[in-house]
Amino acid sequence: QVQLVESGGGLVQAGGSLRLSCVASGTIFSINAMGWYRQAPGKQRELVAIIVSGRSTDYADSVKGRFTISRDNAKSTVYLQMNSLKPEDTAVYYCRITTGGINYWGKGTLVTVSS
Question: What percentage of residues in the chain have a pLDDT greater than 90?
């Protein structure tokens, strides 16, 4: 079994920054991709950022220029640096890894951006 644990969420004022971390543990051979998703009130869960094994990245248009995703393959960890946060970024953030063709999800960490 694979387990993901997110950390770094919290309350921040608009314009502030947070860094989210997600550590994967368990039986992991190689990670094909790692990503961050979020679910805001009244919305579906959506992709925020993703990084693949070749370290190429992709971001939602709403966060481009503000968020940066990175990974440490040796530690099976993915990070999300979030700058210039907006109230619209308020959501539960979930990390996901893809390994062996299977997606695994964390339980989420709450990010609240106050105005």
Answer: 78
The candidate with the shortest Cα–Cα distance to 27, out of 83, 106, 91, 104, is: 104
SS (H, E, C) 33-101: EEEEEEECCCCCCEEEEEEECCCCEEECCCCCCCEEEEEEHHHCEEEEEECCCCHHHCEEEEEEEEECC
Roughly how many angstroms between the first and final C-alpha of the chain, as a whole number? Answer: 40
Backbone angles phi, psi at 88, to 5 degrees: -65, -15
* Residues 6+ positions from 48 with CB-CB distance below 8 Å: 35, 36, 37, 38, 59, 60, 63, 67, 80, 93
pLDDT in tens, 24-44: 998 777 778 899 999 998 999
- Conformation bin of residue 10: beta by default, left when phi > 0, alpha when psi is -120 to 50: left
